[in-house]
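Q: My labmate handed me this sequence with no annotations at all. I'd like to see what the chain might look like in three dimensions before we decide whether it's worth expressing. Could you predict it?
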Amino acid sequence: MLSYPVMDRVFPQTSHMVTKAKKPVDIEPVCASAAVVSANLNTLMKAYPDLSSNLKLDKKTKIGTGAISRARNGQNLTLITMEALAKAFDLEVWQLLVPGLDPANAPVLGIAGKKEQELYKRFRTAAKEILQIDQEPT
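A: Here is what I predict for the chain of 138 residues:
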């Protein structure tokens, strides 16, 4: 739950305006899924300095700072917004819906059987070998 102070305007006898803060208003995400996306988006923005503000994220997604702000607050999420946000962080939309997303270790789909596990193991071994070859001096 996010809360923001509400400003109340008081007009004294003078010509300038004075504002004073009232009791904060709580903003509830519209549903549990929106709350998860909101928390994950805020976590991702903290983890990626080049996408750490609404303005920076807007430059990459082109969805508008208002849409980003609503997503960060768990309000009015659309699939188009979620798709743009996921793409900005090199994720799939479903990954934004996984509670407790770790930016350093994005969730992956489970592997079904032993053959697929063996194939996945070979891919990881091959990737390590490729990295070693790329790091060798030429």
